Amino acid sequence: MLGNIKITLLLLLIIICNVYTFSSDDTSSMNNPKGGELIWRYKTGDVVESSPTIYNGRLYVGSNDGYIYCLSADNGIRIWKYKTGGWVNSSPTIDNGRLYVGGYDCYIYCLSADSGDLIWRYGTGVSVTSSPTIYNGRLYVGSGDKYIYCLSAESGTRIWRYKTGASVQSNPTIYNGRLYVGSNDYYIYCLSAESGKLIWRYETDSCVISSPTIDNGRLYVGSCDNHIYCLSADSGDLIWRYETDDLVMSSPTIDNGRLYVGSFDDYIYCLSAESGEPIWRYETGDRVHSSPTIYNGRLYVGSFDDYIYCLSAEGGELIWRYETGNRVDSSPTIYNGRLYVGSDDKHIYCLSE
Fold first, then answer.
1. Which residues contact residue 11 at a Cβ distance below 8 angstroms, ignoring those fewer than 6 apart?
2. Cα separation of 125 and 79, whole Å?
3. What mean pLDDT is predicted for residues 152-161?
């Protein structure tokens, strides 16, 4: 009789262990000790599509509540916030102690990074969702009024502007004195950064919202025609293109001869930068608009399935994922071993890397 009781207790213990093992593999456990532990989060008044910029231990980011925020990167305490007249999903650029960012109220802003005081603002005709690039004392940015602008970073005075055929949401990239940017008129443009004169343009089959990445004389960019393009940065000639199953609005990241990018087909792709041949792909639960960040052999990116993902850059295996309360448009920033990113749940997150 006693032996039967022992056997029954042993079987019960085995069942309990099996249940525990199964439950430890559920969604909540993906916030696991391999990383992705919440350090702090800060609530804004609306979704955060803007990507954080870190400078001198401070985090700068925009929110669709109309504010530009400056927080302590260490503890998330607010240092200052500046009110604009509309959404801010452009990502801030910091240079020489100044913050530059675009707004839905049709202005490009220059603020003191230290105090948040307005230094100057420049009005375009329509909203500015493109993120500014600073080069040789000049600011370059696209606007919804179809123009690419070059302004003095010091004063905000316009130096030149170039008109495309539709709104410009892509972020400009500067390389060897040339400006590269996409437009919703389906073209990728190469202009002289000095004069704004057209050098070449390449036509895709849909809008180019993705921002160009330049590496070893090649330009990499996504298009809403479902393709990732590799062009000669010098001539604009097509080297290769790779087709996904949906829009590519994510901006490519290049590391160690590999290209990493997300697609609206729910996948994160790793391709050979040389040939465009696929190396691996990882399926998330929804569209990927966020642009990947590579750090210490790991890839970090957000998805519309509400998760922030950390994958092995080598093989694409999941290391950890962290669930926010809504989709993640924002692209992660890594600083001092921590990950910073915004979410459409109205929060800015700081996680352990």
1. none
2. 31
3. 98
pLDDT grade for 14, boundaries at 50, 70 and 90: very low
Nearest-Å Rg of the Cα atoms of the chain is 22
CATH of 41-203, one of 2.60.40.1220, 1.10.3210.10, 2.60.40.420, 2.130.10.10: 2.130.10.10
Burial class (CB in 10 A: 0-12, 13-18, 19+), 236: middle
Q: What is the pLDDT of residues 25-47, one digit of tens each?
A: 222 333 444 689 999 999 999 99
Rounded distance, CA 93 to CA 318, Å?
A: 31
Phi, psi of 85 (to 5 degrees): -100, 10
Q: Which contiguous run of DSSP H or E holds residue 98?
A: strand 98-102
Q: Is the pTM of this model over 0.85?
A: yes
**Residues whose CB falls within 8 Å of the CB of residue 153, separated by 6 or more in sequence, listed in order:** 95, 96, 98, 100, 110, 134, 137, 138, 139
